[in-house]
Amino acid sequence: MNNEELLTFARHAMQMSYSPYSNCKVGAALLAKNGKVYEGCNIENAAYGPTMCAERTAIFKAVSEGVTEFEKIAIVGGKNGVEDGLYPPCGVCRQVMREFCSLDFPVILGKKDGFVETTLEELLPYSFGPENLN
Ligand SMILES: [Zn+2]
């Protein structure tokens, strides 16, 4: 699956966003090595703290179904669901990716006119991962 195709799934997920407080809608599409795509959206909460990001929603959906090997992830976002620039993953989501993904894991950041492709290592240099505890 190419990046544009995966971004289409992310845009679909973005429309599911529950974000009545920020009105920032974010969608993520996680391609697993088994070929399945897991979509996630951000889910806000009136107490703010329980809010969940799109990327972790997608990753946790997959892991909860026994899938832990991933090819790449695509992420889009925008105020009121209108893409207005890059929406890079937050630090917590980067660390969650680090648990399951290789350092060269591709992260595709959609924008209005195309996308930027980066890697987990570029987003989270000198990171702490599972091998540090072995
Ligand atoms: Zn996040």
Describe the structure.
The chain is α+β, with helices and mostly antiparallel strands and about 130 residues long. About 30% of the residues lie in helices and about 25% in strands. It has helices at about 5-15, 55-65, 90-100, 120-125, and strands at about 25-30, 35-40, 70-80, 105-110, 115-120. The chain has a 5-stranded mixed beta sheet with strand order 2-1-3-4-5. A hairpin with a 4-residue loop joins β1 and β2. The radius of gyration is 14 Å and the shape is globular. It starts with a helix and ends in an 11-residue tail after the last helix. The mean pLDDT is about 95. Bound molecules: zinc ion.
Key terms:
alpha+beta, binds zinc ion, 4 helices, single chain, five-stranded mixed beta sheet, globular, 134 residues
Topology:
Elements: H1 3-14, E1 24-32, E2 37-41, H2 54-64, E3 70-79, H3 91-100, E4 106-111, E5 114-119, H4 120-123
Parallel strand pairs: 3-4
Antiparallel strand pairs: 1-2, 1-3, 4-5
Bound molecules: zinc ion.
Zinc ion is lined by residues 53, 55-56, 89-90, 92-93.
Identify low-pLDDT runs.
Answer: none
Q: Kindly report how far apart the N and C termini lie.
A: 34 Å
Oligomer: single chain
Q: What portion of residues belong to β-strands? A: 25-35%
Major sheet size, sense and barrel closure: 5 strands, mixed
What percent of residues adopt helix (DSSP H or I)?
25-40%
Mean of pLDDT: 97
User: What structural category arises from helix and sheet content?
Assistant: alpha+beta
Query: Strand order within the widest sheet?
Result: 2-1-3-4-5
The number of helical segments is 4
Shape, per Cα inertia axes = globular
